From TrEMBL, chains A, B:
<comment type="pathway">
    <text>Amino-acid biosynthesis; L-arginine biosynthesis; L-ornithine and N-acetyl-L-glutamate from L-glutamate and N(2)-acetyl-L-ornithine (cyclic): step 1/1.</text>
</comment>
<feature type="binding site">
    <location>
        <position position="156"/>
    </location>
    <ligand>
        <name>substrate</name>
    </ligand>
</feature>
<feature type="site" description="Cleavage; by autolysis">
    <location>
        <begin position="192"/>
        <end position="193"/>
    </location>
</feature>
<comment type="function">
    <text>Catalyzes two activities which are involved in the cyclic version of arginine biosynthesis: the synthesis of N-acetylglutamate from glutamate and acetyl-CoA as the acetyl donor, and of ornithine by transacetylation between N(2)-acetylornithine and glutamate.</text>
</comment>
<dbReference type="GO" id="GO:0004358">
    <property type="term" value="F:L-glutamate N-acetyltransferase activity, acting on acetyl-L-ornithine as donor"/>
</dbReference>
<feature type="active site" description="Nucleophile">
    <location>
        <position position="193"/>
    </location>
</feature>
<feature type="binding site">
    <location>
        <position position="182"/>
    </location>
    <ligand>
        <name>substrate</name>
    </ligand>
</feature>
<keyword id="KW-0511">Multifunctional enzyme</keyword>
<feature type="binding site">
    <location>
        <position position="409"/>
    </location>
    <ligand>
        <name>substrate</name>
    </ligand>
</feature>
<keyword id="KW-0068">Autocatalytic cleavage</keyword>
<feature type="binding site">
    <location>
        <position position="404"/>
    </location>
    <ligand>
        <name>substrate</name>
    </ligand>
</feature>
<dbReference type="InterPro" id="IPR016117">
    <property type="entry name" value="ArgJ-like_dom_sf"/>
</dbReference>
<keyword id="KW-0808">Transferase</keyword>
<keyword id="KW-0055">Arginine biosynthesis</keyword>
<comment type="pathway">
    <text>Amino-acid biosynthesis; L-arginine biosynthesis; N(2)-acetyl-L-ornithine from L-glutamate: step 1/4.</text>
</comment>
<dbReference type="Pfam" id="PF01960">
    <property type="entry name" value="ArgJ"/>
</dbReference>
<feature type="binding site">
    <location>
        <position position="193"/>
    </location>
    <ligand>
        <name>substrate</name>
    </ligand>
</feature>
Length: 409, 409
């Protein structure tokens, strides 16, 4: 069951001027389930993206990278669930381009102006006949107020659709942002996660939008893990339609840039945390905070060692303060010169370990009380520098095994 | 249930001249269960060891390292289960030394001649009163033919005691080897695993024994993983009592050294694989073989990415040839310049993927047939060099979660 996560009511999701969404059920994996989404953008929109670092990246990731690198003005996105189009070789690339070409024909734009996205099972060819047959219905459905439907249509093992809106005032103009994301398993993003999209009506230059996108990804999707598996399809896309009327933001040192970056980052962080809350089999949401490191990189290393450990994750599932497992993970995180006698480990506000062992005042009941809650803070004070990092993760339950032993069937 | 692993019948375990073992039930964690073992060595025995690289190493590991580094002639080992004496700070070190001192008093040897070993729960103080009270009974029990009892007395969540004997002829002398190991979870050794011991009556010099021990560890315990968690207590110890009558082996380029090293390595590999077969919740035993890499290190990196992936491990549990998950793991293993279009993936003898996608001749029934077996070979041909590496692991089942959610209770 998702941890403290309910669907955002549709009326609280705001349309973004210049962006329309259309959804249909193309029967890509199962009949009758919305699985195909087209997002059409008005001329003048800008798009930036970051993608998985997995060497076995999916065909649509390759196509997106190419088209964004070549600076094509993007007019549409096409997103299918039910099949990842990954591990599909040259046929997969041809299929991704063919889907874009068909969207371009229907929308009367250049085919290089379309970006493809896929999510679902790996190593199986995309069912092109059904996908192509579904596109006219998706295009016919295009409307600005379809974010709730789109958030549902991009889900795989997700239980809760993940979408949210926000507004921020910049230079006297109200800027609106709406984002959605999907992902529940194979979540250990390296650059971005399995399909996250944020659209805003802000006017912003391409270079500034790209800088903002990288920053937001690093502070959100790149700080989560469910199972330590980096997906082949991770993609995080920021769209700026430029319709809010604000003076175009081009200076990355400006207050306007900072305000928009903060708004996008907050939304991205909410979406990233929503993925963890809806992580496969999750019953607990854990924040792993590592402070006092020599660098952000080493803090992340320690945080991820804890967040990935199956032993730590099963102990959280059991609400068992078996905290030696956290110490063991800190110890094998790979920091060669770590002095374990200096660090302190807190569970919530409770000091659990210091001077290489259990804290003198610690009582098991205190740890057990913190572990009962659905949201748990693990804090490590390394006491060797000023850097810090935070990672969000979930526990490891019977249901994780069930979901992943049954997926595909 | 352990995968193709049954206890070695006691009569097939050979005594090693010069080594006696004594076991008792000291009630360290639970009353009535054998949990305390003393191994007494005749004068002239040589001992070498390798230990965990976990920075949060247990107190007994620190004491072992010190005493071996200082070149003390080792006369006894004391091993308890039920408590790891890890994350116990300065008190833990004092406790480990106190246990050794008491063994030394009972055996009338120098206290620096005793090595301590612990395994069990982390972050709880060793119950010294019960441990010290149990030592006289363990010493009174000392006899050469107790390997089967000792292999049981060092278990934690292990289901099957893991011990085995072998003989090899060197320079016309029959050399006998007997080894035992324990470990089932928190298994991802980095140098050695959670308590492995091999004793031989061979005569071998200290430097040669140390070289042999490192080699055997690298080819056995350092090639397995159950859950990716490197323990705080990993220790692998080789004992040579020198009673076989062979000329002392000192030249590491000699045929005698090679023969003994091969015998020890084979035994260590059997013990390491036995740990995987008895991995927590294991239902399948997987051999991950990566060939054609530029270096052994990168082959190990790819093999471990596959072996650690919860998605791969749950797919094996389900006998589901969801092989895209293996490609995804290869892709995120961290080899920056990997050309995924060149590599080939085999499941058993079946070519599953090549040229970046599913092999043309592959049929799902073939993959499913291989997955049904309790022992599965995954082979990756990287096609970029001559190096190779093999890693052994097990699947991820409901029982892994159950065992680790319940451990301690």
């Amino acid at each position: 069951m998702p941890v403290n996560l309910t669907p955002t009511p549709p009326e609280r999701l705001r349309a973004i001027a210049g962006a329309r969404l259309g959804i249909t059920a193309a029967g890509i994996k199962k009949p009758g389930r919305p699985d195909l989404t087209v997002i059409a953008l008005d001329p003048g929109s800008r798009v930036a993206g970051v993608f998985t670092q997995n060497r076995f990246c999916a065909a649509p990731v390759t196509v997106c990278r190419e088209r964004l690198a070549q600076g094509h003005a993007i007019r549409a996105l096409v997103i299918n669930t039910g099949n990842a189009n990954a591990g599909t070789g040259s046929q997969g690339l041809a299929d991704a381009r063919r889907a874009c070409a068909e969207v371009a024909r229907l929308l009367k734009c250049d085919e290089q102006a379309v970006l493809p996205f896929s999510t679902g099972v790996i190593l199986e060819p995309l069912p092109m006949d059904r996908l192509l047959a579904g596109l006219p219905a998706a295009v016919a459905d295009l409307a600005p107020d379809r974010w709730d439907k789109a958030a549902q249509a991009i889900m795989t093992t997700d239980i809760v659709p993940k979408a949210r809106s926000a507004t921020v005032t910049i230079d006297g103009h109200t800027i609106t942002l709406t984002g959605m994301a999907k992902g529940s398993g194979m979540i250990h993003p390296n650059m971005a996660t399995m399909l996250g999209f944020i659209a805003t009506d802000a006017a912003i230059g391409q270079a500034a939008l790209e800088a903002l996108t990288r920053f937001a990804a690093d502070e959100s999707f790149n700080c989560i893990t469910v199972d330590g598996d980096t997906s082949t399809n991770d993609s995080f896309i920021c769209i700026a339609t430029g319709r809010a009327g604000n003076p175009e933001i081009t200076d990355t040192a400006s207050a306007a840039f900072a305000a928009l970056r903060e708004a996008v980052t907050q939304l991205a962080r909410w979406l990233a945390q929503a993925i963890v809350r809806d992580g496969e089999g999750a019953t607990k949401f854990m924040t792993i905070q590592v402070n006092g490191g020599k660098s952000r990189a080493e803090c992340r290393q320690v945080a991820y060692a804890i967040a990935r450990s199956p032993l730590v994750k099963t102990a959280f599932f059991a609400s068992d303060p078996n905290l030696g497992r956290i110490l063991a993970a800190i110890g094998y995180a790979g920091i060669e010169d770590l002095d374990v006698n200096r660090l302190r480990l807190y569970l919530g506000d409770v000091l659990v370990a210091e001077q290489g062992g259990r804290a003198a005042g610690y009582r098991e009941e205190q740890g057990a009380a913190v572990m009962q809650a659905p949201e748990i803070l693990v804090r490590v004070e390394l006491e060797r520098g000023d850097a810090c990092a935070t990672v969000w993760t979930c526990d490891f339950s019977y249901d994780y095994v069930r979901i992943n032993a049954e997926y595909r069937s």
